[in-house]
Amino acid sequence: MLNKVLSVEIKEEDMKRSLRLGKPDDSARSPRPVLIQFRDRVLKNMIMESLYKLRDAEDVFKRVIFAHDLVLL
User: Fold this and answer.
1) Burial bucket for residue 33 (CB in 10 Å: 0-12, 13-18, 19+)
2) Can you tell me the mean pLDDT for 9-25?
């Protein structure tokens, strides 16, 4: 999605780690947040600056929400 919709070239090695937050709910397939930690702060800033492109994206991508996580892991 980052490469296709936001036009930010991200490779697998650019991500330090990613993990799903919260407990899975077996009764319903409720969405859970994903935390992605990048190796470089510049990449995160490029993504956050290109979020305006989600307005023109497909309906599937319009439901995605991005937010800064200021907690250091």
Assistant:
1) exposed
2) 88
Structure tokens at 22: 């919260």
Residue 64 has pLDDT above 90, yes or no: no
DSSP, residue by residue, 3-41: TTTS-----GGGEEEEEE-S---SSS-----EEEEES-H
Q: Give the whole-number percent of the chain exceeding pLDDT 70.
A: 93
pTM to 2 decimal places = 0.76
Give the start-to-end residue ranges of the domains of the chain. Answer: 12-62
Find, among 71, 65, 69, the residue nearest to 31 by Cα: 65
- Cα pseudo-dihedral 22, 27, 29, 34, rounded to 10: 10
